[in-house]
Write a structure and sequence with these properties.
By secondary structure, the chain is mainly beta. It has one domain: Umud Fragment, subunit A. 11% of the residues lie in helices and 32% in strands. The protein has 2 helices and 11 strands; from the N terminus they run H-E-E-E-E-E-E-E-E-E-H-E-E. The strands form 2 sheets. The protein has a 7-stranded antiparallel β-sheet. A 4-stranded antiparallel β-sheet has the order 7-6-5-8, with no helix packed on it. A hairpin with a 2-residue loop joins strand 6 and strand 7. It is globular and about 50 Å long. The two termini are 27 Å apart.
Length: 168
């Protein structure tokens, strides 16, 4: 049964035009989102999830263009929203001086000495971080991300099929 389901999914993904229904397929490159997503996972992204009137929410997992590496896409989690004060306090995040609950963090992050530890976001800017903070190139490296760099919201991890889930 699992083999038939895998075959059906593979065929459906190859012949469906995702542009008509605003979905795009991406492969996860690297382990910065471990354990939520790992290198090689295949994900479906809603490229029309956000509009100027419907902005990303905190904890959304998004695909974005890396601001420091033209042409490179990455997957990160939205931590800070526009017009917020975000800072690192030891191994956890503070947003407007309230500790952010992050159940997806499995290993206490070590903050590199050269990384910034606080940001104030402007209108249209977001702080994005990987779930595996010890191995993530994110806003600690490239700073706040402009809304225009966000490609879309991750809806589903569809491969490997045995781990088909809605990442949260």
């Amino acid at each position: 049964m699992l083999a038939i389901l895998k075959l059906w999914l593979t065929i459906a993904l190859r012949i469906t035009s995702f542009k008509k229904i605003s979905l795009a397929r991406f492969s996860v490159d690297g382990n910065s989102m471990w354990p939520t997503l790992v290198h090689g996972d295949k994900i479906l992204v809603d490229v029309k999830a956000y509009t100027p009137d419907k902005q990303p929410s905190r904890s959304d997992i998004v695909v974005l263009m890396d601001p420091g590496q033209p042409g490179v896409r990455c997957v990160k989690r939205i931590i800070g929203l526009p017009d917020e004060y975000i800072r690192v306090n030891n191994s956890f995040m503070m947003v407007n001086e309230e500790r952010l609950y992050e159940p997806y963090i499995q290993k206490a992050p070590k903050l590199p000495k050269s990384s910034p530890t606080q940001w104030i976001t402007a209108k249209g800017e977001f702080i994005v971080l990987g779930d595996f903070r010890n191995d993530s190139r994110d806003s600690r490296t490239f700073g706040p991300v402009d809304y225009s760099l966000i490609i879309g919201k991750v809806l589903l991890k569809y491969w490997p099929i045995t781990k088909w889930t809605k990442p949260s």
